[in-house]
């Protein structure tokens, strides 16, 4: 059973990967893909904020 730190670590890793995919989608002008990824990004960002994670240094998208 994962503890709280393991869950937060996994969420941060997912957040980082998701941002990479968003930047690629934006670069390739994949508007629909970017919009779907942004929905996931906002959900993960909200969860990380509630968990008390400071996103200042890891949030590359800044939306």
Order of helices and strands: HH
Large-scale geometry: elongated
Beta-strand share of residues: under 5%
* Unreliable sequence segments: none
The portion of residues assigned to helices is 55-70%
- N-to-C terminal Cα separation, in Å? 33 Å
Task: Specify the biggest β-sheet.
Answer: none
Number of helices: 2
Work out the number of β strands: 0
Mean pLDDT: 92
Taking all Cα atoms into account, the compactness measure Rg is: 12 Å
Q: Class by helix and strand content?
A: mainly alpha
Number of individual domains: 1
Write a compact overview of the structure shown.
With 63 residues, the protein is an all-alpha fold.
Walk me through what this model shows.
The chain is mainly alpha-helical and 63 residues long. It has one domain (4-50). Helices cover 70% and strands 0% of the residues. It is built from two helices and no strands. Helix 1 runs antiparallel to helix 2 (31-50). The longest helix has 24 residues, at 4-27. The radius of gyration is 12 Å and the shape is elongated. The model has no long low-confidence stretch (mean pLDDT 92).
Question: How is this fold's topology laid out?
Answer:
Blueprint: H1 4-27, H2 31-50
Helix pairs in contact: 1-2
Which properties best describe this structure?
mainly alpha; 2 helices; 63 residues
């Amino acid at each position: 059973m994962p503890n709280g730190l393991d869950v937060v670590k996994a969420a941060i890793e997912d957040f980082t990967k998701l941002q990479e995919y968003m930047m690629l989608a934006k670069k390739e002008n994949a508007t629909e893909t970017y919009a779907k990824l942004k929905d996931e990004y906002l959900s993960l960002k909200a969860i990380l904020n509630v968990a008390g994670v400071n996103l200042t240094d890891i949030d590359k998208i800044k939306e």
